[in-house]
Amino acid sequence: MARKEYTVEQRGVGKPDYSSNVTEIKRGETLVLFEPRPDERQKIFYVSHPLASPLAVGETVHLMDRETNLATPYTSPIGFLASQRERFFSFNGAIRFTLTVDTLEPVVLFPSADNLMGSYESIAAIDTKYWDPEASFGHTWDMTITNVDTIPLSGMAQVALIFTEIGSSVMTEKRVRCLKCGNIMTVPLKQTRIECSECGYDFVVPFFGKEII
After folding, report:
1. Which of 99, 123, 154, 173 has the least CB density, counted as fewest CB within 10 Å?
2. Whole-number Å distance between alpha carbons of 21 and 112
3. CATH no. for residue 69?
4. Is 120 inside any structural domain?
5. Which of 129, 73, 120, 78 is closest to 101 using CA atoms?
6. Is the dihedral of CA 174, 42, 108, 141 positive or negative?
7. Residue 2: inside a domain, yes or no?
8. At residue 67, does pLDDT exceed 70?
9. Residue 22: its pLDDT value, please?
10. Per residue in 61-84, is it b (16+ CB within 10 Å) or e — as a string?
C-alpha cells in the first residue's frame, strides 16, 4: 500500500491551549464583580478576638458596625434596599454564626473549625427587596458569633451588606462608640479620627464613602 503524507498545522509549543474555554472566575475578578455600583454602598460588620482576648466557651458576641463601633442589632434606613452579599470567618475552633433579619427565621451557619471560610452571594437570598421592594420601612439586622467549642477561641468574622439607594435619604452626621469607655458621640459624617468627649481617648473609624446609613 502506498504511503501518504499529510502536512499538519502546528499550534502552540507542545502544550494544549485551552485559554478560550476558561470559565473559572479568579479571585480578583470575583472581588470586582461584587464591588458596589455607583447607586450602591457597602457596610461592613465584624468581630475580632485576638490571642490575648479569646472568645470564652459558650460566649456569644454581636458583630459591630466597622464605621461606628456600634454593636448589632443594626436598623437599615428607609429608602435603601439591603442585601447580605459576603461572609468571612476564620477561628481556631468551632463557632456558630447566626443572622436574624426582622422576624424571618434565623440563618444559622457552622463554619469549619480551624479553617478560613469566605463566600460571595451572587444571588442574595437575604434581601429586603423580597418583602419591602419600595424600601418603605427600616429593617433590623442582628449578627452573632457563639463559641460552641470546648476551648477559648481566637479569630475574626466579617459580614458585608450592600445597600441600594431608591429614595433620597441623606445624612451629615454619624453616631460612634468609644471602644475604651463605651461613650456614644455624634460626629460629622466623614470624620475618621475621633477624640472621646468622655475619656479623651483618641481612636479612628473608617469611612467607606458616600453616606453613612
Report:
1. 123
2. 33
3. 2.60.120
4. yes
5. 73
6. positive
7. no
8. yes
9. 46
10. bbbbbbbbbbbbebebbebbbbbb
pLDDT category of residue 111 using cuts at 50, 70 and 90: confident
- Burial of 94-124, coded b for 16+ CB within 10 Å and e otherwise, reads bbebebbbeeeeeeeeebeeeeeeeeebeeb
Q: Are the CB atoms for 204 and 194 separated by under 8 Å?
A: yes
pLDDT tens readout for residues 122-162: 556 789 999 999 999 999 999 999 999 999 999 999 999 98
Structural domains of the chain, count: 1
Q: Would residue 174 count as lying in a domain?
A: no
Task: Residue count of the chain, please give it.
Answer: 213
Residue 121 lies in a domain: yes
- Note whether 140 and 74 are within 8 A (CB): yes
CA atoms within 13 A on the CB side of 87: 20
What residues contact residue 176 under an 8 Å CB cut-off, 6+ apart? 67, 68, 69, 70, 184, 185, 187, 194, 205
164-186 residue pLDDT tens = 888 655 667 889 999 999 999 99
